[in-house]
Amino acid sequence: MEKDRGPNDLEQLIEQRNEEIDMLKKQKEYMQLKCRQAGAAVLKQEARYAELVKEFDKVCEERDNFERMLRSGDDTK
C-alpha cells in the first residue's frame, strides 16, 4: 500500500519539509558560528590598528624631536 502513494502524499511532503528545516537549522548554526568568528577577528584587528596608530604617533613625535635637535644644533654654529 505504501507504493500506491503519489508524489503529493502529505506524509512524504511533511518528511521532506522536516529534512529541509533540519538542514536550514544546521546551516543557520554554521553561519552564526562563522559570524561570531569574523566579529572576533574584526575586534582583534581594530585593537591592533589602534596600537599601530599609537606607535606611529610616537615615532612621528620622536622624528620631530630629532629634527628639532638637529636644527637647534645648526643654529649654534
What do you see in this structure?
The chain contains 1 helix and no strands. It is mostly helical. The protein has one domain. The model has no long low-confidence stretch (mean pLDDT 91).
What descriptors fit this protein?
0% strand; 77 residues
The poorly predicted ranges are: none
What percentage of the residues does DSSP assign to strands (E)? under 5%
- Helical amount among residues, as a percent range? over 70%
Average pLDDT taken over every residue? 91
The class by helix and strand makeup works out as mainly alpha
The ordered string of helix (H) and strand (E) elements is H
Return the domain count: 1
Provide a count of the helices.
1
What is the distance, rounded to the nearest whole angstrom, between the alpha carbons of the first and last residues?
A: 110 Å
What is the C-alpha radius of gyration, as a whole number of Å?
33 Å
Question: What kind of sheet is the major sheet?
Answer: none
SSE layout:
Blueprint: H1 10-75
What is this structure, in a nutshell?
This protein is mainly alpha-helical and 77 residues long. Helix content is 86%, strand content 0%.
